[in-house]
Amino acid sequence: MEQPIRNRAGFFINFNGTGGVWRKECIENAGNWQDDTITEDLDLSYRAQLKGWKFVYLRDFTTPAELPAEMNALKAQQFRWTKGAIETAKKILPSVWRSKIPLRIKLQSTFHLTNNIVFPFILFAGILNVPLVFIKNSGPYTIFFNIMSVFVLAFISSFLFYLYAQKDVYNDWRKRMMTLFPIFMAGSMGFAVNNSRAVFEGLMNRKSEFVRTPKFKIVQKSDEVIKILLTMLTV
Question: Taking Cα atoms as reference points, which of 157, 67, 150 lies closest to residue 111?
């Protein structure tokens, strides 16, 4: 949902690691691959587009990919993406704002590169949730809480985003939204601790190794990680 819409609107998009093709002269002109962030593809994508190179998102061209098969792999992947985006934002945004690109692209680029800063706020909200219930019930704060409830409307955009994503891919999108969306939201909040640590490390320039996401060559729904691991160990 994100990439084709950004592309059609003329905004900057990020190269999807294993799902795209670069021109050699584009890479070289943009300053080549650099290792000062752990999302080197995001970094190079922005430098190339600031140089005037155009990306094309081919919506109907499919490249096979493998999602993380177990929780530690998913946490490592999310940590890398979150921290790397913060590192890239610190590195690239000054160049974005000094460039002569339109203001709307500068604003969208800022939102794009800094959206992971939401995780510390999710963590903060989770920690304060129980105390706020007691505060609400212990004093004359009803009006204040009623006014603040307007921020619940922000949830609508997330809901619509995933609704249209599921509708675009699956025929049973209604069932999926009813059953999986609440689980997804709970899981996203559960990542707040892991990803908040990534945000703070990125902001404080704390370097860490590039932890790649393990691949198990899972092709069929019947494939199981345990069986594949045992097969790999016996080869």
Answer: 157
Tens-place pLDDT, residues 192-215: 999 999 999 999 999 888 888 887
Half-sphere exposure of 181 (CA within 13 A, CB side): 18
The phi and psi torsions of 63 (rounded to 5 degrees) equal -120, 125
**In the chain, what is the straight-line distance between the N-terminal and C-terminal CA atoms, in Å?**
40
Q: What's the sign of the alpha-carbon dihedral 217, 64, 173, 122? A: positive
Cite the DSSP H helix spans in 99-141. Answer: 103-114, 118-137
Single-letter amino acid code for the residue at 55? F
pTM: 0.84
CA dist., res. 211 & res. 223, Å (int)? 24
Q: Give CA angle at 76 (112, 22), nearest 5°.
A: 55
Q: What is the token pair recorded at 50? A: 């600031």
Give the three-state DSSP class for 34: coil
Q: By the 8 A CB rule, do 11 and 109 touch?
A: yes
